[in-house]
Amino acid sequence: MTVPNGRRERKKAATRQKIADTALRLFLERGFDAVGIRDVAAEADVAVTTVFSHFASKEALVFEQDEDFELRLTRAVTDREHEPLIPALRREVQALVRHCTADSATPTWHMITASPALREYEESMRLRHAEALAAAMAADPALSRTPTACRAIARFVIDAYSLAREAADPQAALDETFRMIEAAWAVTQPSGNSTGAAGSQPVSGAARRM
Q1: Is the whole-model pTM more than 0.85?
Q2: What value, to the nearest 5°, has the Cα angle with vertex 120 and ends 45 and 152?
Q3: Residue 36 belongs to what domain range?
Q4: CA–CA gap between residue 52 and residue 8 (Å, rounded)
């Protein structure tokens, strides 16, 4: 999670984390459908309005790092300086895959898989992440790609996370998928443009970094 600055921001972040931790514990103990927002508020010792001031829905309580991951993805584009784009994105996706495939995350993913509401929320979340990533890519003049190319690659990157998380060997799946993403990114390069994945070096050089 991004570390907030200032006492007030830290207090808000601590309250948010307390609510999310409480909600997840109750969901895992009793089942997602059996727990309501009022139950979470009472257990966390906060008002219902406080819960909704931090989380837009009950489903959002399960994905409390949603906004943080989206921000990390877009910053992989905007803050990468001279690093090639695809390796920068791979690093962030790999970190998320490691987090979500840890043994401690297994009960949560079992709960998500068993809940149609949570599966639907996760799907909408991934689409939103892809759109935010595509917008960041399209806004970077150094990348010189069309909006369509940016949207296609962004969706591929987000899907790489899901494929790796669900695979028997997450690392192998990530390696395989990002080789395809690297190749697809190179194909979208406008003709006559000699810059590579980062917009600053040849494609072959970027590929060797993978």
Answers
A1: no
A2: 125
A3: 7-57
A4: 18
